[in-house]
Amino acid sequence: MNEPDDGARAGVIAATNPWPGLAAAISAATIVGITYGGVVPLLSLNLEHLGVDAVWNGLMGAMPSAAMICLSAFIPLIVTRLGAARAVYASTALASVILLLFPVVTYVPAWFVLRFLMTLGIGLPWIVSETWINALAPAEKRGTVMGFMARCSASGFRPDRS
Q1: Can you give the pTM of this predicted structure?
Q2: Is-contact 116 60, C-beta < 8 A?
Q3: Domain range for residue 32?
């Protein structure tokens, strides 16, 4: 009798108990939300401190959305080539390195490139985690699970309480 491969075995485990995988995916989405919610205002404050005009600061704030529109078509290719886990690890490492470059790079136009690239680092885990949640969530609880994930990922976005 042939033994099932690890992928098939993992699929059976996920089908019988999807909750550990859902917890991991929701955790990833939460981390992305907190990171994005913290980085956007921090970079805007840094640009303001550097005396950058509000228009350029606003354009910088729009960069992640523009970058996601450009990069989202390539995410399935990246995940197919690297595998979901490796793609998430690589993109997280990319985002971490880029985040460390912001204080070192003083040429503000270069920040547009950094923000563009950082979007891949933050966006890929977000898309993979949402896909993972959709695949693992039991059909009768999918809406509840997606709502919980959205709430968790939105935890990084909070109104100004000044």
Answers
A1: 0.73
A2: no
A3: 20-155
Residue 4 within a domain: no
Closest by CA to 36, choosing from 127, 159, 153, is 153
Q: Are the beta carbons of 133 and 146 closer than 8 angstroms?
A: yes
Q: Could you tell me if 124 and 75 are in contact, meaning their C-beta atoms sit under 8 angstroms apart?
A: yes
**Helices within the chain (DSSP H only):** 6-16, 19-49, 54-71, 75-82, 84-101, 108-136, 142-153
Domain of 52, CATH number, reads 1.20.1250.20
Q: What's the domain count of the chain?
A: 1
Ranges under pLDDT 70 in the chain = 1-15, 158-162
Distance separating alpha carbons of residues 147 and 126, to the nearest angstrom:
15
